[in-house]
Structures are given as structure tokens and as C-alpha cells.
Amino acid sequence: MRLGSVLSEALRNIGSGVSRAFVMFLAVLLSGTLLGGYEAMNVIGLESEAVQRINADADVNAIVGGTVDGDACDRLADTDDGTMSASSGAMRSGRQIVLLATPGKDISSYDVTPGMIRLIAGNAKADVSGVWVPRDVAKDFGLAVGSALQTREGTTRVAGVFDWPNDGRDTRFAYAFIVPVSASASTFDECWVKQWPASGQTESLLYSTLVAGSGSSNAGVTQVNKSFDSHYDARSSYLNRPTRWMPYLGLAIGVLIGVFSVRRRRLEYAGALHSGQSKGAQLLGIGVETVAWAGLAALSSCALLTAYAVRMSQSDWMAVLAAAVRTPLAVFSGVMVASLFAGLLIRESQLFRFFKKR
């Protein structure tokens, strides 16, 4: 048979309903979308957990109980090698500050290195030329970026306002003035480091900031936000997610659909061979029909998963989609391979047996 004849016959089979293309289309579409959607939901859940931890500073560790070198602490941020992001800074207790507007009330302050300002602000270019205040303080005293802060010691400028919610993190910065000072201005009480993804070297890096011979034998590393699991491993959670097997399940379902689509027409195919159709032409026809309904279903499934990933992902929708579309593609691959293999096994000599079992 000529190529044009094979293609026209395949299209007639689809158009006339002989191939049950719409039913097969729905089977591939539903299996690919449901299984792929389940994978996408799981990955988005892991992504949401990671975003929640990052926003809550659950990945911030601090060394306490020792004497910290501010310069060494700020330099920990240089461990950013392109595969992870890091910020770090040192802090110590400062003097109590009394505002002229409320002379009967004093507020705690903390001296911090420029690196600490970048850590709490989440911005590598944060302004360190003035005092930083948490949003609650700014709201109570009517402060904003650029406001003049008048205290008993003099007037200073508010360089920034930051969020410090009550979500389990260290509460000292929740209602205090954060005063940036030079990293080499004396020593500090604590060094904080924020690293994502977390590294097993964080603890040793923090210990390296301690001043030698300063009586820091009791120093230890702790989480800034203790309401989260300290043994969280984002990469392990992703690699061991229960839905990582979805593509294999999709492949198995695709094989079943492919075999069914050919086996239900085995009498027709054996009869065509008896009438003189070559095996090559028959396999080409099977392939064209299968690509039409299975390919369109897989494409539609990928489009639906793309829309879902873009709409629901909080961070990297491309990563969610990359995990999810493997399943509909696996279903499509299983259908194609199984249908062609099932067609290859049909022989003209089986015609009488198929006829008796019809």
C-alpha cells in the first residue's frame, strides 16, 4: 500500500469511529492528567513547605554563648557558590533607647553588623546608614523609611522597616531598634547564618567565627526559629516523595491501553493481512491512529498540568511542571510501544481462531 492510502485509511478509521479514538483519547487524557496532577500537587506541597521555612527563618542557625568576630561572621555569606544562597551577620545587645515622644518608655536595641541587616531585610543591597525597626515599632511610633528618630542621645534616621512575625522565631528583634555598626567594632555575642539549601558545614562554619582564647568553650549552635524540624532535608524530601513512581504507573497504564486498543480489533487486522495488506503498512496505520488520539491526549494533559503549575506554584512552576509532565509522556510512550508490539504479534494464520472467538 502507498503511504497516502495508509494515511487516508487511518483517518477514515478515526472519523468513522472504528478505532474508538474518542474513548481512547479520554483514557489517556484522564490517566495522564490525574496521575501527573497528583505528582504536581505533591511537589507543590514540598515547595510550599520549603517556602514556609524560608519565610519563617527556619533555616537560620546561630552560635551563642561565645565571643564572635564580626568580620569573620559577615564573611560566611561568601560561601554562596551559585548552588546555594547564604547571608550572615553578628549581633550583640545595645543600650536601652528612650524616644523623646515617650520619655517614660525605653526600648531595647541591638548592635549588628551590615551582614545582619542584609539577613533580616532579605536584600543584599540593604541600607546600613541608619537604624532599622520592626513593623510593630514603626506602626506604634508612626515611623517609615527616612523618618527622623529623636532620642535622648540625639537624632538618627530610619533606614528601613522589616517584618518579624511571631511564628516561633527569636522574639528579641520583634520590638527593638536594630543599629548597624562596623563589623570590626569590638566583638559580638552571636553570629547568625542563613543558608538555603542547608549545608552540613553550617555548624563548623559558625564555630570558625569564635574569637580564639575568649572563653567560648560553652558556645553552641541553635536554631533562630525552634518551631520547625531541625533535621529538614529538602533534597531528600523531594527524592523520596511517594509520587516519584507515578511515571512508572503511567507507563503500565499506557501499555494496557495500547494493548487493548489493538487486541479489540485483532480480527480486523488478521483479515486485512489475509486480504493482502503488508505487515509494514498495517503497523504504520496502527501507529498513525495511535499517534492521533494518544498524542493529542498527552498534549492536552501537558497543557492542563502547565496551567495548574503556573497557577498553584509559589516559587518555580517550571520545576513542578518538569516533574508532572513525565507521567502523561510515560502514558503516551507506553501506548505507542504496546500498540505497535501488539500489532506485530497478530498474524494471518490466527484469522480462523479469532473468528471462532469473536
What is this entry, summarized?
The chain is α+β, with helices and mostly antiparallel strands. It has helices at residues 3-16, 21-55, 70-74, 114-121, 135-141, 202-207, 234-239, 246-263, 266-274, 279-312, 317-324, 326-345, 351-357, and strands spanning 60-64, 85-93, 97-98, 106-107, 109-112, 131-134, 148-151, 154-162, 177-180, 190-196, 220-223.
Rg for CA atoms: 33 Å
Count the helices. How many? 13
Derived from helix and strand composition plus strand pairing, the structural class reads alpha+beta
Helix content: 40-55%
Largest sheet: 6 strands, mixed
Instruction: Count all strands and give the number.
Output: 11
Through-space gap between termini:
27 Å
Question: Which regions have little confidence, pLDDT < 50, spanning 5+ residues?
Answer: none
In terms of quaternary structure, the protein is: single chain
Principal-axis shape: elongated
Notes on the protein architecture:
The protein has 13 helices and 11 strands. By secondary structure, the chain is an alpha+beta fold. It has a 6-stranded mixed sheet. The longest helix has 35 residues, at 21-55.
Structural features:
358 residues; 6-stranded mixed beta sheet
SSE inventory with pairings:
Layout lengths: L2 H14 L4 H35 L4 E5 L5 H5 L10 E9 L3 E2 L7 E2 L1 E4 L1 H8 L9 E4 H7 L6 E4 L2 E9 L14 E4 L9 E7 L5 H6 L12 E4 L10 H6 L6 H18 L2 H9 L4 H34 L4 H8 L1 H20 L5 H7 L1
Parallel strand pairs: 5-9, 6-8
Antiparallel strand pairs: 1-10, 1-11, 2-5, 2-10, 3-4, 7-8
